[in-house]
Amino acid sequence: MSGATTPGSKTADAVVIGGGIMGASAAHFLAKKGFGRVVLLEKGRLAGVSTGHSAAIIRTYYSNPITLELAKRALHMFENDRDLLGGDCGFRAIGFLLLIGERLRAAGEHILESERRHGLHVERLTVDEVADLAPPLSLDGVSYGILEPRSGYADPTRTTENLVAAARPWGLEPRAGVAATGVHLHGNRVVGVETDEGTIPTNVVVSAAGPWAGRVGSWLGLKYSLRWSRESDLFVERPSDFGALPVVSDPGLRCYLRPYRDDRIIAGLGAPKDIEPVDPDECDPALDPQMRERIERPLFERIPALSRARHLGGYASLYTITDDWHPIVGPEPGLEGYYAFFGGSGHGFKLGPPIGEALADVICGEAPTIDISPFRPGRFIDGEPLASSWGEGNRG
């Protein structure tokens, strides 16, 4: 399985470009399978951009069958994080609650039935039952709720660091602060990666460069249709008498929120959402006043008590968005040894580990338990983009 030719040489059996959740997952599972020396390049720090700023919601509420199966696997992984993800990932199973209004009633029922067919435990709640579960919520415009009791949220930075640390004994070599600057080919075959510290000979490259995946692809003449959106979250102080609250997704008001630590609530704009175009190299990480107001408006409408809570700051980060809002994963046609793994479009954190697991199988020449070929880079040329019941921009 290993591709190294000279024991002890600087040759790597695989080089993964990008130290977010996707790169860390691919590197972790390749190393775990005994692939050999796996070098993980990250020009900044692990989980330093999109991953570290993820709301890190772990939920299974999807309408697309492959995404649903991956989310189901992800939930299992986070429930068993010490065994499957390298350590305690801060997973808190506080439940995921979706608020359904009249406009989305049919779509909600469709996905509820789909989840049940896939063996997931989901509950349809009356408005009164929602009120009992989450008393701080104002339920104007809500027809019913859908609850995933096992779902919740995790710590995205800790998850990424665990994946990397746990795989070191298996051959994973993280190199934070080292940037990839090129990929070398011999004919159509990968033979090395150029970095700002020299060349690493290798026959396998995984591009998990997130917002910079298009730039990495351009080194090989590849052109991806990608967009980037500046995505923001804010924090408000959690009132002392607030009570219990699950993760809440509100597609009617287009916002989401969840507890953050013990003393605050994190909230952001929910899907379907507008793209806030941004240059990945020039994304201001500060929460601007206009975006703060846009998030506070639906948040305070759904939870009026928070309008009196103290604002505790916020941040902005990046979504890397593909044409169908689903990731691009798999071997690049015509390039031997080059694999894509990017474009989470806002749901990459939870899907990163199970996709990384499946991609490692593919790279090793094995059939993955979950077939990820629908995410293949050529699906758009083939006229087979993925779809969801919610439509573009909701990644459902």
Please explain how this structure is put together.
With 396 residues, the protein is of the alpha/beta class. It folds into 2 domains: 1-91 and 153-226 and 322-396, FAD/NAD(P)-binding domain; 96-149 and 228-321, D-Amino Acid Oxidase, subunit A, domain 2 (D-Amino Acid Oxidase, Chain A, domain 2, 2-Layer Sandwich), CATH 3.30.9.10. 25% of the residues lie in helices and 25% in strands. It contains 9 helices and 19 strands. It has an 8-stranded mixed sheet with strand order 5-6-4-14-15-16-13-17, with helices on both faces. Helix 1 packs parallel to helix 6 (156-167), helix 1 runs parallel beside helix 9 and helix 2 crosses helix 9 (348-363). The protein is globular and about 65 Å long. It starts with 13 loop residues before the first strand and ends in a 33-residue tail after the last helix. Mean pLDDT is 94; it is low at 1-9.
